[in-house]
Design goal:
The protein is built from 3 helices and 5 strands. A hairpin with a 3-residue loop joins β4 and β5. The longest helix has 18 residues. The chain is globular and about 45 Å long.
Length: 132
Amino acid sequence: MKKKNTKNVPVKCIVYISTVGDIQHVNQREQRQMKYISEYAKGNDIEVVKVMHRNVLGQLDVNRHFDRIIQMISEGFADGILVANMRFISKDIDDACRKIAKVSNVGAAIYSVDDGKLMFRFKDVPCGYKTR
């Protein structure tokens, strides 16, 4: 019997680099975080299609970036978001759940290096899906 060639299609993700601390060491911390995220992506069949940086911006700017990422996902540019940890993009657990729900609503997921794949799937709740 012929064996099928099953090749895993990599998940296309937008990486969001976000660190907190003083402005003098932001680049150094972002480089370390990118290396940490890249190693996870290689081991989990994730393709990085874009990298966005928080730099030293506040939570309001992070929320604007996040909404832009959601828009790019809904337009078919990516299949998800890859972060080191949800605490870098959320101010509290409620905010984290809202962000996971927003991403799930467009048919995608957040991949956290520390927490794994984060998404909500409810059978009877209608969701919007990205159009390609």
